[in-house]
Amino acid sequence: MDPRSFNSGSPGKLIDTSLGVKAFSPDPLPPKIDLAAVFLAFGESMAAIGALNAKIAQLRNPHIILRPLQRREALLSSAMEGTFTTTDELALLEAGAEEGARADTREVLNYARALTHALNMMEQLPICHRMIREVHEKLLAGLPRGRGGDKRPGEYKRDQNWIGGISPQSARFVPPPPKEAAAAMDQLEAFINRDDPQSIPALLEAAIVHYQFETIHPFADGNGRVGRILIPLILQSRGLITAPVFYPSASLEARKDEYIDLMFDVSSKGRWTQWLHFFLSVCTDTCVTSNRLIDGLISLQNEYRELAMSKFRSNNVVIVIDHLFSSPVVSTPIVKKLLGVTHRAARLTIANLEEIGVLEKVQGPSMPEYFAARAILRASA
Ligand SMILES: Nc1ncnc2c1ncn2[C@@H]1O[C@H](COP(=O)(O)OP(=O)(O)OP(=O)(O)O)[C@@H](O)[C@H]1O
Ligand SMILES: [Mg+2]
C-alpha cells in the first residue's frame, strides 16, 4: 500500500504494523456525506426498491422465489472470490448428493447456509458481533485447510492481513491490525445500533457499513463474502425491503474493478460521493434484475401448474412443482417424504413430471437417482 496515495481527505489514520508496512485504520462512522450530490441517484434507487417491494406484495407465495435468488447470490458472491460451481451442482449437493461433490460446491453451499442463518437470526437479534461471527462460522465451517477452514471460523483475526498482492509490501491495501480492527468493529456495531437509525437513509447506511466492514477486514478470510451478506441484512432490518430478495453480487461482480478502486479511494482520499453513486447504481441494477428474475420464475410456475392441472388429476404433481422452486433437485425418497406417500406413488409423480418436461434425470448418482428441474435452475442462473 502506497502511503503517498493518501491525502488530507482520508477518513482515518495510517499506522505502523508488525509487518513493517503502514496500515489504514478508519475513523468511526458516520462520515460527513454530501446528500445533495447523490440526490438523483438516491431517488432512482428508492424508486427501484419500491418497484421490487410492489412486486413482492403481489405474489401469492413469495417463498417460491426466495431460494432461487439466494442460490444465485451464493454462486456469484463466491465467484468474486474465485470459488466456482454451477447451479446444478449446488442444487444436487443441497438435495443430499454428497458423493463426488467438489470443494467449491461445498463452499458455495456454506454461503447459502450462512445467508439463511443470518436471515433467521435477524428475527431475534440486531446486527451485532455475534451475528457477524456466526455468519463467518457457517461460511467456513468444515472446509479443508487452504480454503478458510484453518482460518478460525467464527473468530476475528489474530494476525495482520492485507488485500490484493502476494506480500504486505506489494499489497494494494493494508487494513488495520487486529487490536485496532476489534475496536473498529465495536464502533461499527454501535453505529448500526445507534439511537437514531433514521439519521441516515438505509440505502446510504448499507453503502457506508459495507465500506467500513471491508476496510476493517476483521477476519483472516471471508471478509468479502460476509460483508456482502451484510448489505441485504441492513436493508431488511431497516424495513426498506420487505422480503429477502435483494442480492447485489451480480452487479458488484460485473463492476468488480470499480467496486474495489472506489473503496480504496474512500480510504485514501475520502471520496464518499463517488462510492455512494456507485453503490446506488448497483442497488438500482440489483432491483431491476431481481424483478426480471421474479417475473421469469412466476411465469414458469404458472406454466407448469397449468400443464400439470390439465394432464393429471392428482394434486401431488402441483405440490412437487412448488417444492421444486425452492429445491430444484429431488429423489424418490425426498418426494415420498414431501407427499407422505408410498415409494411407488412418489416414483409415479416423478415420472409424471418427467413426462411434461419439468424433471430430467441427473446423470451420475444412482443410489438414489436424482431428478433436476432444469428450467427452474436456468431461471435463476
Ligand atoms: N481497497 C479496499 N478497501 C476495502 N475493501 C476492499 C478493498 N479491496 C478489496 N476489498 C474488499 O475485499 C474483498 C476481497 O479481499 P480478500 O481477498 O482479502 O477477501 P477475503 O477475506 O479473502 O474474503 P473472501 O474470501 O470472501 O473474498 C473484496 O471482495 C472487497 O469486498
Ligand atoms: Mg478469501
Fill in the CATH topology of the largest domain. Fic-like fold
* Terminus-to-terminus distance: 37 Å
Q: If classified by CATH, what would the architecture of the largest domain be?
A: Orthogonal Bundle
> In terms of per-residue confidence, which ranges show pLDDT below 50 for 5 or more consecutive residues?
none
Q: What overall form do the CA principal axes indicate?
A: globular
Question: Major β-sheet, in short?
Answer: 3 strands, antiparallel
Structural class: mainly alpha
Number of helices: 15
**Sequence of secondary-structure elements:** EEHHHHHHHHHHHHEHHEEH
Number of strands: 5
CATH superfamily heading of the largest domain:
Fido-like domain
List the bound ligands: adenosine-5'-triphosphate, magnesium ion
Strand order of the largest sheet: 3-5-4
Gyration radius, in Å: 23 Å
Strand content: 5-15%
CATH class call of the largest domain: Mainly Alpha
State the domain count. Answer: 2
- Mean of all residue-level pLDDT scores: 95
Fraction of helical residues: 55-70%
Q: What is the fold's blueprint, element by element?
A:
Elements: E1 12-16, E2 22-26, H1 39-58, H2 63-80, H3 87-94, H4 103-121, H5 129-140, H6 178-192, H7 202-216, H8 223-237, H9 249-254, H10 256-269, H11 272-311, H12 316-326, E3 329-331, H13 332-339, H14 343-355, E4 360-366, E5 369-372, H15 374-379
Antiparallel strand pairs: 1-2, 3-5, 4-5
The structure holds adenosine-5'-triphosphate and magnesium ion.
